[in-house]
C-alpha cells in the first residue's frame, strides 16, 4: 500500500455506481450517507434495523437488512453493488467480516473503502490489521482509511460527565491525541469511493494538531463559557466508574487500553492526508465543540 494520493490524482469525474454503506447509521456512516446522497452516487444503506434507519434518514433512500453475523442477509445487501464502505463493528468476529469480504469479491464488487485505525499498519495483532491483510489478499481494490481517535467520542462516550459534572473523565495523563473529526473521515470516504485514483492505497487520517486533555478541557471551557476540568483518574478508578455507568466489561477494557496508549505518548502523530484529499484543513477540536455545543449544554 502507498500513502496519500496527490490532489491531481484524486480529482476526476465522479462515478455513479451503487455504493453499499455498512455501518450506515453510525458515527462515520451517517455523514457518509448524507455526503454521498448530496452527490450523484446511488447509495444502499446496510443496517440491522431498516425501520430505525428510515426514521433516521427519511424515505427515498434504499435500505437493506444486513447483519454481519447473519450470512443470509448478505446476498440482497451485495446485489448489484460496485463499491463498498466497510467497517468492523466493535465486538464482531473478524471471521464474519473477512467472509463477507470474500462474498463481496465473489459477486463482483470492485472497490472497498475499509475504516481502519491509525497505526494499524504496524500492529498485526489488531483486528483491523488482520482485516486489512485479508482484504489485500482478495481481488478487491482496497483503500484503507486509518483514522485516529474521533472527536465524536467526546460526545458519544463522555458527554454525561461534561454535562453533569463539568469534567472530562479519562485516564490519559499528559498524553496527547491527534483527534480526527468523524465528519472529515466520512468526507474522505465519500471522496475515495467516488473519485478515481485511490485504489490500493492507505491514508492516515488525523486532526491538524495533537492536544492533551488539559488543552481539550480548556477548549471546552472557552467555547461553552463555563469551567470544564480534566479529571485524569487512575485507570482502576476509571474502569470502576465506567462499569457503574453501564458500559460493557469488554468496552471498558478497550477504553483503558486506548487511554493507556495515549498516556504513553503514542497517539499524537498528525498527518496532512485529510488536507491533501479534501483540499481543506481537517476540523479542529474547537470547531467540533462549537458545532456540538448544544449537546454539551443540555
Ligand atoms: N471511535 C473512534 O475513535 C475510532 C477511530 C478510528 C477507527 N474507529 C473504528 O470505526 C469503526 C466504528 O465506526 P463508527 O464509529 O462509525 O460506528 P459506530 O458509531 O460505533 O456504529 C456501529 C455501526 O455498526 C453497525 N453494526 C453493529 N453491529 C453490526 C452487525 N452485527 N452487522 C452489521 N452492522 C453492524 C451499526 O449499524 P446498525 O445498528 O444500524 O445495524 C452501526 O451503524 C470501528 O471499527 C472502530 O474501531 C473508531
From TrEMBL:
Name of the protein: NAD(P)H-binding protein
Domain NmrA-like as annotated: residue spans: 17-231
